[in-house]
């Protein structure tokens, strides 16, 4: 202290150290240093900054931000073609966008889910969840081992209250209340219960429920963590392939048999189960009026290693399982079986060529490439359409009117030259590279068009040879998928939903019942009666708290409570300062309320 120091610390010159400033009468600026007010905060240092960063990373706010950021980061995967799924589309995009394409490729936009930035967000979210779950699980485990709080002295300020009388002794009432509160629901005790002897013949019961709420919260976070692990595992160990199988033929489950094949980084194609599948028949049903598809069924024969051939069916949304992979029916169409002979009469091409449907009546487009001609003859390319049920509404104009092969017709244009198959650049089998080819024309300069029906043979223009339309089998497009994480993803998703529902809807409640000796009556043993009071407290607004308290009290008393929501008899005034405070802690400690302050039920 400085200035006048009269007894009691009162004087005209009294001024505490450090409070002088230029605005006081005749004062001078307070000196800086040890006696000044400018406190020097310690530097955080490297450890302090790391601890701060860790706390930020493991906070709920950052975890939610990373979850949203992960969803946003996945958007480019749906906007740009992805190299693992469609490398040809990526190459085409790079060709068409010569300026921006290479930059997008460097930034990983054509392989989003394997990019550095997507993996970084994924790992940060994983670490954030782990850092959030571990301490909360430790605190929750300690809370599960705890006991319900002791019964407060006064119930007057609780949101749910009830009272009644019983002819039984206080101890018997308390034990009955404990039995009611311990009653199991779905195999789990409804409340954790403690019975207390408060002395002077008074007994009380304290009960608590609702730890399922925090358990559900932890389960939700653990399930999210499991989902991240399962999805990452699935991306590493999965494979997916598409194969077109023509009726009467089959394929073996090796990578070379697939038209397209993608796999996870940790999957070895040598681990493919070597089963075979043969397409025996294909049935298609259409509505006779609207021509809309009604049912597709592929009849296949599957032979797994060490097993006998087995007849199976594959339908839309009804896959079959072969060699730990699910086989889906993805599409179907027609594959005309053609034979092309070159100018020397040698068979240059023979086989079924899938034509892809373009509309509901299966107008199908296809390309036939004939590179294996003899001598120095030009290679041949045929481009055109298959019409399952062809009609000619106008001269030279053909179209299909039915998806079933009632009157099939091939309409083809002819090209000759170099197909470009020897350049080393992969080509789309359904597209003809016309850059080194010339289209056949007639004497008038019009393009030559061939019209061929099953069983017919036509001459190719310019002496290129002949074309024979042998038959018209069907084909199916099969999609084979293997992902060992699917069952785990489903399990963790259901656990996440269950945990979220528990955390949102499980009520957190505390109930107390006190049985105290009351007056005398002609009923009961010895003419004595027991006054029973009860109170309840919930975390947040809980409309079911009072009904549950009334139900418990009714069972304890054997009837509806005599009084509900009125315990004035056992309440005290606002200014009561007796030693029985509502705080469950020691009333001589820091929790003691001061005289004249509103009393608070802290449980």
From TrEMBL:
Subcellular location per UniProt equals: Membrane
Q: Give the residue spans that cross the bilayer.
A: 62-80, 112-134, 218-237, 486-506
Q: Give the Gly residues compositional bias ranges.
A: 1-12
Task: Using the UniProt record, give the first listed, main subcellular location.
Answer: membrane
User: How does the protein associate with the membrane?
Assistant: Multi-pass membrane protein
Q: Where is this region: Disordered?
A: 1-35, 560-603
Please tell me whether the keyword Isomerase is annotated for this protein: no
Stored PANTHER family: CYTOCHROME C BIOGENESIS PROTEIN CCS1, CHLOROPLASTIC
Annotated protein name in UniProt: Cytochrome c biogenesis protein ResB
Q: Which organism is it from?
A: Cellulomonas xiejunii
